[in-house]
Design brief:
The chain is α+β, with helices and mostly antiparallel strands and 272 residues long. It has 2 domains: 125 residues, MutM-like, N-terminal (N-terminal domain of MutM-like DNA repair proteins, Alpha-Beta Barrel); 125 residues, Helicase, Ruva Protein, domain 3, CATH 1.10.8.50. The chain has 7 helices and 10 strands. An 8-stranded antiparallel sheet has the order 5-7-6-1-2-3-4-8. The protein has a two-stranded antiparallel sheet with strand order 9-10. A hairpin with a 2-residue loop joins strand 9 and strand 10. Helix 1 crosses helix 7 and helix 4 packs across helix 7. The chain is globular, with a radius of gyration of 20 Å. It starts with a helix and ends in a 6-residue tail after the last strand.
Length: 272
């Protein structure tokens, strides 16, 4: 599933071609049946003026004040360009102009686990407020980390980091890597965290996310693609996730366990 770095990469790429005045649109049956969670009228003659992001949710803002919220699910992406290659998985196709070039914007999703909501401004704000602070938001600080984690003393750290109502944008590989870089076992209970651990966790968040964005996101097993159809190169900076040997100590084999039905990787030498 695309996590914060992948969704932010797509947002930045798409934003380079705004504003986009839509001249034609096409919705597939699969979009209407599986992806859309609200009715989506024709977007013809509307203009996308801005694209925001909160957590894993893209927020397309139109000139009339309406919003299209898009969660990419497991395999979704937005492709954009003058001559993009559409496929049978291109479920929403928007054709238009940014004032300089003819542009096609297409939502591509083979498994159709993504979600879209076409909402008024007020309802979009309400929907986004269901999420916790974005991991890159200035309000996401040591005080917030300590406050939230201490609310759930019996929860395991890594499982808590996956909660989108607390940590918008986190996901399986990010949570595993945060624990690793903070040198904390993913199985440690929140009540067992010490004061010194919270600054380490915050720094780990930045150390995981910022390089991943710079590398265009992270692709596993041919999954995520950016808006140009390219794979992300973020695997090169992972220290435990999908690794055989810990890339911090370079000695210990990485161990894998299942937490909350998800593969979790850690180094028993580096993490305590």
């Amino acid at each position: 599933m695309p996590e914060l770095p992948e969704v932010e990469t797509i947002r930045r790429q798409l934003s380079q071609n705004l504003p986009l005045q839509i001249e034609a649109d096409k919705q597939s049956a699969g979009l209407k049946k599986n992806v859309l969670k609200t009715k989506l009228p024709s977007l013809k003659n509307k203009t996308i003026i801005k694209i925001n992001r909160k957590g894993k949710m893209l927020d397309f803002i139109f000139d009339d004040g309406s919003h299209l919220l898009s969660h990419l699910g497991m395999t979704g992406t937005w492709l954009m360009g003058k001559d993009i290659q559409l496929t049978k998985h291109s479920h929403l196709i928007l054709s238009g102009s940014n004032g300089k070039n003819k542009i096609t914007l297409a939502y591509d999703d083979p498994r159709r686990f993504g979600k879209m909501y076409y909402l008024s401004h007020e309802k979009a704000v309400k929907k986004l407020n269901e999420l916790g602070p974005d991991l890159l938001d200035p309000t996401f600080d040591v005080h917030y980390l300590k406050l939230v984690l201490q609310k759930f003393p019996e929860r395991l750290l890594k499982v808590t980091l996956l909660d989108q109502k607390l940590f918008a944008g986190s996901g399986n590989y990010i949570a595993s890597e945060i624990c690793a870089r903070a040198k904390i076992l993913p199985t440690r209970k929140c009540k067992d965290l010490k004061d010194k651990d919270f600054p380490l966790l915050l720094q780990a968040v930045r150390d995981v996310i910022e390089p991943a964005i710079e590398l265009g996101g992270t692709t596993f097993q041919g999954g995520y693609r950016d808006s140009s159809g390219e794979f992300g190169q973020g695997k090169s900076q992972l220290v435990v996730f999908f690794q055989k040997t810990c890339q911090m100590c370079k000695k210990n084999p990485v161990e894998k366990i299942i937490l909350a039905q998800r593969g979790t990787y850690y180094c028993s030498r580096c993490q305590k």
